Amino acid sequence: MRSIYEAHTEADVGFTTVESVFGVKADAGHAVDLLALNFSLDGIDAAAAPVLVELCTATFATNAPGTNSTAVTVHNTSGPRIAETFAAAREWTAAPTVLVSVMALEFDPYKMIVKESFPLGEGYDFPVAEGFVVRMTAAATVNTRVHGRWARV
C-alpha cells in the first residue's frame, strides 16, 4: 500500500497576469505521482478571455514552497502514516524555477470547476526532490482555488 497526500490553496488566489498559484515539492528521498488535480475559477466578467492553466514540472532551483509564497498544509489521507516530508504552497510573488509546461489548456474563467483524476499509471510523475506547479494566466482579475492529490513514490 502506498501513502496518499493532499493539499489545497486554503484560500482564494487572485491573479491578473501570470501566477504560480499552487505547487508541491518532494523531499530528497521521494518523488511525486500526481493522482488528481482539481481547481475552480471565479472570474468577475462572463465575457472575459479564457484562462490558460498549465501543469508544470518544477525543479524548484529557486523559490521552493514557502519561499516567496505562502506555505499550505499537506495531509496524509490514506496508506501508511509516514512522516510527511512534502512541501506545498500557494501564490508565489517570485516564480519558482525551473518550470516546464507539460499540460496547457484554456478554460472559461467565469464560475467553473474542473476535477481531473488520473487513472492508475496514466498520471504525471515528478522526479525525486522536485515537483509540480500549477501556473495560470488571465487577462482580467480571476480568483482560483486548487487542490492536488498525489502518492509518495
What can you tell me about this protein's structure?
By secondary structure, the protein is mainly β. The chain has one domain: Sandwich (Jelly Rolls). The protein is 0% helix and 58% strand. The protein has no helices and 13 strands. It has strands at residues 4-8, 13-15, 18-25, 32-43, 51-62, 70-72, 75-78, 87-90, 97-107, 112-117, 125-126, 131-137, 142-152.
Summarize the structure.
With 153 residues, the chain is mainly beta. It has no helices and 13 strands.
Return Rg in Å.
15 Å
> Strand fraction band?
over 45%
Helix content range of the residues, please? Answer: under 10%
State mean pLDDT (0 to 100 scale): 92
How many independent structural domains? 1
Taken from the alpha-carbon principal axes, the silhouette is globular
**What's the total number of strands?**
13
Question: Number of DSSP helices?
Answer: 0
Major β-sheet, in short? 7 strands, antiparallel
N-to-C CA distance = 11 Å
Structural class: mainly beta
Encode the helix/strand succession as letters. EEEEEEEEEEEEE
- The CATH architecture would be Sandwich
Low-confidence stretches: none
CATH C-level: Mainly Beta
CATH topology: Jelly Rolls
Could you list some keywords that capture this structure?
mainly beta; 153 residues; single chain; Jelly Rolls; 13 strands; 7-stranded antiparallel sheet
List the helices and strands and how they pair.
Blueprint: E1 4-8, E2 13-15, E3 18-25, E4 32-43, E5 51-62, E6 70-72, E7 75-78, E8 87-90, E9 97-107, E10 112-117, E11 125-126, E12 131-137, E13 142-152
Antiparallel strand pairs: 1-7, 1-13, 2-13, 3-8, 3-12, 4-10, 4-11, 4-13, 5-9, 5-12, 6-8
